[in-house]
UniProtKB/TrEMBL annotation:
Keywords: Kinase, Nucleotide-binding, Pyruvate, Serine/threonine-protein kinase, Transferase. Belongs to the pyruvate, phosphate/water dikinase regulatory protein family. PDRP subfamily. The lineage of its organism: Bacteria, Bacillati, Bacillota, Bacilli, Bacillales. GO terms for molecular function: transferase activity. This is Putative pyruvate, phosphate dikinase regulatory protein. It is an enzyme of class 2 (transferase). Pfam families: Kinase-PPPase (PF03618). PANTHER family: PYRUVATE, PHOSPHATE DIKINASE REGULATORY PROTEIN 1, CHLOROPLASTIC (PTHR31756:SF3).
């Protein structure tokens, strides 16, 4: 890629376009493509909109990624892309065709089914509300109501991981482990397979906590971010996790999505 030329990927959908955007962003991460931008256009309903989108993409020199479930809109996208010489990638079409050919079934061809307000939707909303309300050990009684309890020392990604898993419909609460704080009795009543311990390499945790001190305006060298204190907390947390018999995940350099995938594997 030339560094002096900006590139744009147009993301189109007859729904909100989150599926196509997720695929595009995952692809961008595989390249040194800092100069690439994306533009998302959702709720496309007419062939005239598609003509205008393809024409604009041709002028900008980028390509199009789209999820269109209406066959007439998909066909129009293919025709206009060919006419203007624009690369257009059909994200959902091949998958739908494989489903039709393999299972001899017909699609509903209704946009936005991924986000419809069905039972799964309300379960996700309930799980998110639960995670927010019970974050960081605010409600000890929630430990017994949760499908999963995350434990670990401060700054081991407990809260963002809880919210991410809640978006998958899993009721999660988390509990910080501090040597001076007594463990709640509710924790001992849970089976080990409903608890996951999060840990991290001491050096990495030191860097994260040091940055945290800067962010909140606390002086450098506060006990919270000393290597001695971090080692003490991690040793304590490991003893607790071993005693409970829970799964332990070292989250050093792991993305939230990666850790969540491991945990969901445990739950299955």
């Amino acid at each position: 890629m030339r560094d002096d030329q900006p590139y744009e990927i147009t993301i189109c959908s007859d729904s909100v376009g989150e599926t196509a955007e997720a695929v595009v962003k995952a692809t961008i991460r595989q390249f040194d493509a800092h100069q690439v931008t994306t533009k998302r256009i959702g709720h496309i309903k007419s062939e005239d909109e598609i003509r205008a989108i393809v024409e604009d993409a041709a002028k900008r020199g980028g390509f199009i990624a789209y999820t269109l479930v209406q066959p007439e809109l998909r066909e129009m996208m293919k025709e206009e892309a060919l006419r203007f010489g624009v690369r257009a990638v059909d994200i959902m079409g091949p998958m739908m065709e494989a489903f039709i050919d393999t299972f001899n079934d017909a699609p509903k061809r209704k946009p936005g089914l991924l986000h419809q307000m069905d039972e799964d939707y309300f379960r996700r909303v309930e799980a998110i509300e639960f995670a927010v309300k019970c974050d960081d050990g605010r409600d000890m009684s929630a430990l017994l109501k949760a499908s999963l309890v995350l434990i670990g020392v401060s700054r081991t990604s407990k809260t963002p991981l809880s919210i991410f898993l809640a978006h998958k419909g899993i009721k999660v609460t988390n509990l910080p482990l501090v040597p001076e704080a007594k463990l709640p009795k509710e924790l001992s009543l849970l089976p080990g397979n409903r608890i996951v311990g999060l840990t991290m390499d001491a050096e990495k945790l030191y860097k994260i906590r040091t940055e945290r001190l800067k962010a909140v305006g606390l002086p450098f060298g506060a006990k919270y971010a000393t290597m001695e204190r971090i080692t003490e907390e991690l040793d304590y947390a490991h003893r607790v996790m071993k005693q409970i018999g829970c799964h332990i995940i070292n989250v050093t350099d792991k993305a939230i999505e990666e850790t969540a995938g491991i945990i969901m594997g445990y739950l299955k």
